[in-house]
Amino acid sequence: MKPAFTFPGQGSQAVGMGKSLADNFAAAREVFAEVDDALGQHLSQLMWEGPLDELTLTANAQPALMAVSMAAIRALETEAGLDLAKEAAFVAGHSLGEYSALAAARSLTLADTARLLRIRGDAMQKAVPVGHGAMAALIGLEFDAADAVAREAAQGEVCSAANDNGGGQVVISGARAAVERALPIAQERGAKRAMLLPVSAPFHCALMQPAAEAMAEALAQVTISAPLAPLVANVTAQAETDPDAIRANLVKQVTGTVRWRECVAWMADQGVETFYEVGAGKVLTGLVKRIASNGKGVAVGSADDVKAFVAARG
């Protein structure tokens, strides 16, 4: 079976990410230059020199992480002859990584993707006043149990499962007081750890509705083509190629649960055994075995990783 190519989301950012790709491959340098031009900002300089607190701002982190993913994909295409149309069973991305997946599969242009992610990051940050929302990781509870904890803690406020990452890792999101109420409930229900996350907004919950409306408007202005390989969408955990459905799912994704465990499990059920994580970090790679017993995760985010990919192809 052909492999799947997956793309990481927010949290994988680090100062210096993508620098080795730019230093070694002209195609990668072209990606960073195009993203800088699209945003009217020296984002690549921020990525490579910091400071980290500025890079971590949602409006910067989202296009920056996409840029690294795209730099790696373009390097694989030019150095290894990778052809996603022929070689990828599916593409998929975690939250903002879904945009990277669509750009990699030529469903969105690179410039449009960068601008959309800047809009998305700004809109998500503005949707809820700082300090009014929160997210927490519940470790050691499966999704249904974590979802029940969130619903019990809500008490009339927003509190719901935001990310089903697999391997007993579920992130909840909502009003700060409700998320804080969920922590002791989760521990009583057997969670190994229940901790607030250092995020600036409560992503993937109903509080993000203003951001969803902003993205609906922004997405209506761009061309979305059928991807070179089917996209396994966060909100449905099913493959999709229809541009209108992809557009609608990207809007739903802002407030909806990222069903990553189900996405990987579905791809594994279709016969996928190798999952390439293209971009910064190795978060998704670490989750593969926990979700798909026969799955193999391979991270491709540096020049050395690209060279290893080339060598493996002979």
Topology:
Elements: E1 4-7, H1 19-24, H2 26-39, H3 43-49, H4 52-55, H5 58-80, H6 84-87, E2 90-93, H7 97-104, H8 110-127, E3 133-139, H9 143-154, E4 159-166, E5 169-175, H10 176-188, E6 193-196, H11 209-219, E7 231-232, E8 239-240, H12 243-255, H13 260-269, E9 274-278, H14 283-291, E10 296-300, H15 303-312
Parallel strand pairs: 1-2, 1-9, 9-10
Antiparallel strand pairs: 3-5, 3-6, 4-5, 7-8
Q: Kindly state the mean pLDDT as a whole number? A: 97
The span between the termini is 19 Å
Briefly note the structural class of the backbone.
alpha/beta
Strands, total number: 10
Which geometry do the CA atoms define?
globular
Helix content: 40-55%
Strand/helix succession: EHHHHHHEHHEHEEHEHEEHHEHEH
- Order of strands, main sheet, comes to 2-1-9-10
**Sheet of most strands:** 4 strands, parallel
Low-confidence stretches: none
Number of helices: 15
Alpha-carbon Rg, integer: 18 Å
Sheet-strand content, in percent, reads 15-25%
